[in-house]
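Lab meeting, action items carried over

1. Structure of the two-component assembly. Owner: GW. Status: complete.
Input record:
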Amino acid sequence: MIDDEEIIISIRDLNLFYDENQALQGIDMDILRKRVTALIGPSGCGKSTLLRCLNRMNDTIDGARIEGHLMFEGEDIYAPQADVLNVRTRIGMIFQKPNPFPMSIWENVAYGPRIHGNNDRDELESIVERSLRRAALWDEVSDRLQESAMGLSGGQQQRLCIARALAVDPEVILMDEPTSALDPIATQRIESLVLELKERYTVIIVTHNMQQAARISDRTGFMYVGEMIEYGSTKQIFENPQMELTERYITGRFG
Amino acid sequence: MQTVFHEDLRGLSGSVVEMGELAIDLLRCAMDAISTCEAEKAKQVLEKRKIITTMDNDIEEDALRLLLLYQPVARDLRRLAAILKIITYLERVGRYAGDVAKIALELGRESKITKIMSIPYMGELVVSMLEDSIRAFAEGDIAPIAEMSQRDDRVDHLRYAIFRECLAFMMEDPSVIEPCVNHIMAARYLERCGDHACKISEKVYYMVAGGRMEIR
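Predicted assembly:
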């Protein structure tokens, strides 16, 4: 049984529509604190849409409408009084393609704390170093913090984006296929990093690479045409899934 | 959707069934050799045993290749894991068949002991256990292995009965010590083959149902 204390995000009967099209159907799921949760499923199954619901990224899409409840630490992030900026600070996001800002490495990481009003140089220094260390990038860039972030390799850029997300001290990190644009070595580094991150953060990751989900996640949700078909421990999903559809998808019999 | 991987996996499963049939066949021949004292039969077993070893290596290599290339999950992963274990058990059965055949050669000619012993019956029981475990694997059905534990108990019981029987013979007539010891050994080999049928059944259960079942 899952203890309530362990649940950081609780999703109940979540439906999402893009105009008339329903993209998510009655999603129920509890996300556990300081665990890695992977979302898998064929293209268009709604896994990225679900991920984007978690920090209200779908708000920016015209015609998107949400029903149901999405409780983060006991508070509904879709309640009228919810503070979207606060939600996005506490729930950070990493995208498929690394998207560093065209500024120095240091500026990239200090950007978030700065727009949150932190201008104390010493404090920013320590945030930048701590974030880069936690993103496993410090050793590679500590001697060139003032150089442009655009000069970093793809894998380094992605870790920089992770450092940038960590700088505002989030509780949850959402990752949307964070390694799909990276080579195998850079991918391995990000994967090890995810395993380190879960000591402090809750990570939710969308991935097309099932072996990646099996390697780094504690729990896995399999989605298909907007529904959560099966959600459980990663071991269970990949060794002995209970739903025929999950079985057929992960063994490559369709999709 | 049928992929190259699934075709290969099906082919590999077919090879496991073939290996199982050969191992069972060897054990049956070795048992015949003891009953009929046909040295020729026993020699055939020892010759064919080498094929089992080759199959063990070939199947293992193919299974590892599939693991490496396709990183299978769920039922496919369970099937490959089961295959890797099952071929080890079958290879052992093949070796025991060889050991039984060697006993047949040593016994040489028919003795009064051969007629009394319940070894042939024990052999039939073990062969049927092996057959059912391989059938369960081939058909992906756990029904044939449902009673494996009870059948294994019967085999264990027979081994002990044979041991006691031989003990009585040996005390009565020291000239039968050699054939009796050989029979005790044969019973021991058969009992081990029964254990391997149980281990194969456990793996088939895991492959089919996903959970663990212990046969003791």
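2. GW to write a short summary for the group page. Key points so far: Residues 105 and 144 of chain A are 8 Å apart (CA to CA). Chain A is about 35% helix and 25% strand.
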